[in-house]
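Dear colleague,

Following up on Tuesday's group meeting, I ran the structure prediction for the three-component complex that the binding team flagged. I've pasted the input sequences exactly as they went in, so you can double-check that nothing got truncated or mislabelled along the way. The structure tokens for the whole assembly follow below. Feel free to forward this to whoever is handling the docking comparison.

Inputs:
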Amino acid sequence: METLVFIVCALIVLAGAIGVVMSRNPVHAALSLVATLFGIAVLFLNLGAQLLAVVQVIVYTGAIVVLILFVLMLLGVDEDEDLDTEPLVGQRIVAVLIGLLLAGAVLAVIIIGKDAAVTGARSATEAISPTVTNIVQIGRQLFTTFVFPLEITAGLLTIAVVGAVVLSRRPKDLQPIPEPESMTELGDDPLTITTEEAAH
Amino acid sequence: MVGLLWLIPALPLAGFLMLLLFGKRIGEPVAGWLGTAAVAGSFVTALVVFAGLWNEPEHTYSLKLFEWMPAGRFSVDIGFLLDPLSMAMILFITGIAALIHLYSIGYMHGDSRFPRFFTYLNLFVFSMLMLVMGDNLVLTFLGWEGVGACSYFLISFWFEKDANASAGKKAFITNRVGDWGFMVGTFATFFAFGTVKYVEFLPQASGLAQTTATFIVLMLFIGAIGKSAQIPLFIWLPDAMAGPTPVSALIHAATMVTAGVYLLVRVNPLIAASASWLPWVIAGIGVATAFLAATIAIAQTDIKKVLAYSTVSQLGFMFLAVGAGGYSAAIFHMITHAFFKACMFLGSGSVIHGMHEEQDMRRMGALRKVMPITAITFIIGWLAIAGVPPFSGFWSKDDILAYALHKSIVLYVIGLITALLTAFYMSRQVFMVFFGRANWGPSQEAELANKLAHETAHADGDDPADAEVHADAHGDAHDGHGVVPHESPRTMTIPLIVLAFFAATAGVLNLPFTEHLEFLNRWLEPVVGAAQTQLHLSGAQLTIELLISTVVALSGIAIAYAVYLKHKVDARRIELPLFANGWYIDSAISNFMGGLGRRAFEMIAHFDRVVIDGAVNGVARATRGGAMRLRSVQSGYVRWYALMIGVGTVAIVAFVLTQVSFS
Amino acid sequence: MSPNLPLAYLALSAILFAIGGVGLLVRRNPLVMIMCVELMLNAVNLTFVTFGRMLDDIAGQVIVFFVMVVAAAEVVIGLALIVAMARRRPEANADDLRLLRG
């Protein structure tokens, strides 16, 4: 049963991920992302992380993706992106190569190493209890072992809010960002020291 | 009570900082009073410390505030050494500085940068105190540079005029030449002793190799030459008169220029350990400077220039004393000179002030009627510098001459001639300014212009000017629109009176008659005693020397009286162009630097451009060429950067995989 | 549960991470780039939970909380930047913003 669920969800996740990368329309990409995130939420359930599964649905699909879609609509940039051309020479080939190498390397470790690929002490923090509910266990850990990082995340979120407000405030003198000049137009660089200049 | 030592420099420093921050806001005259109060407080503290110093063993006390530069074996402290020598310096520096601050309140009245003047003046006093109180060469050097910088600021205080600005530059650059010597001397001291602290290296001086000691002293002497305006670096001091007169009195007569003498007296054990020709060099340069400057002073017409050359000359006397082994005599003359020269400078400032910024002595005369206090105090200073008994200058100069005679008859004779010249040119100044006929006022203005034109037209023309003082000159001046001399305000006359009093009486510090009367000698004994030349003059010798000095001084005055008041001899036969132009030293330097020197420097500049700049530019070009190729990496494309991160990640993962073994 | 199922989770997250990375490198729309970053973060989250399961440790799940917080903050700032940018140049993509080039 678990294996079956995994296979189905894995396919959904991968299909969604490929959809994010490949779809021309950003709205389609966002919807594909939702599929991926739902798949991962189910996988969390499969792994016994009930709380995370719920948070995944509420925070990611409920908040983050909605926010992204909101911005998408707000700016009206939902027109199709030209995916056939790539202005940076070799970027696409190298990117795919790197993706393959990265995935290949990790897969190689997993395939060759089997269970030995995962090292580390067992139950270093706290063993997952079959009796205590998942949410109680995580909550206890958050407010004991991880209380200091928890406090810092509060600061991080505050900073993020302030930063977002500052960044998205409309300045009085709104200037368009100038078009970048091309490399060749820059001419001789100002560091040049001529002998005539040095003499004065 | 000695523990209050730190307050002495701290008060002027505090005054400086407060004036720096709030000077503009509090303005005139509060800024002046604040500055004066800071220095006066410092003087009072110095008196208290002085009283406490009597109880210290050997009258010596040192205070370490904190370690300034610890670097391995080398360490420099902010620490103060209080001994009889520095105590004497502190007392007269703070005392005279306080008086000159007070005077400046009146003199600088109405100046647009009144608070800034006192800011600099306070900083100067602080630096000067660091110079004399520092317990090591580096701290002394800090003060040394501090007073140099203040001197520069204050000479070019009225920088609106180009001449003043360039005079400041001249002083600064000339001093740098000397400072180089000081620095090399400090380095050499550290290499020889491993320390720059006076109390640590001075007692070891006798064990030092003679050449090392000679080298160190020679380098420090170069520093002293620059700061104390001796041949060949004396050229900056006369130009330094571009600054306000209180500055000339404080920095360029009483205190800063004596720093070189102080330095040499401080390291007297090193001089004793160095080669026997070195004192000869010091004495020779001293007496040569004294003589040369005295001859130049004869022909100057600017009231301050005369005093400036006179200062150079008197400093030469001090170096003569150091070279002859008379350290206490050098300090004695330094103190009396500080009193009478400060008095005369302030007096000349009072005259300039009263004459509305007129500095040419030919336009003065008969001022004793309108400026009685200035005249009386100036005359006391004159008698002191001319060496008329019993004024202070007589005793200190005679003390130096006694040491010079002990060293060599040649030094003594040149010293005597210089003393004669001193008496002559100072009398000339007094007669031209305070006696004779008034050359100011509307009628005299035209007359003088006529006379000057006449003089230039007929170089051999006779001069039938009558010596009578025009009794009605004062009245005339009131009617006309010309200059109306007036006596200066009380803030200016009080310092004059105090300084004149000390100029007259400071001789009691060191009367040569019995050992009991030589207070200064005995006081300085712990510092200079070992290296000091011991004079044992019999009563007859002493009497003869004193008589000769008196006769010399009086004959100098008499000649001046004959020339400038009775007009028995044409003054132009004495005021040779050679003297008036300062032996053409300045123009010779300009010519040399403009001609031969310029070509040499251009060659060096060419070498610098082609070889040194070539190497530097070559490195720069290589870097630039490489950078031009590398800059395409910084394309500005975020995705490109991300790609590079990916490449790096893959590389690291690949590396880790090669290191892992799967069992 | 077959013994190799956890390894399958790890393999899935590796592939998901690689897809997210490639998307980040090839897409020019900044919003899509943020989505790709989310993909990568989710791949990592999945790894954490799997490790927690394999090592029988609850900390694997706790860490995911922090990753989610960071992801939320990152999205907020990223979107604010995009809004600020789009106000000045509505048609711009990530390649047009290269004033800091050498």
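Helices of chain A lie at 2-22, 26-46, 50-75, 91-113, 134-143, 147-168, 195-199.

Cheers,
M.
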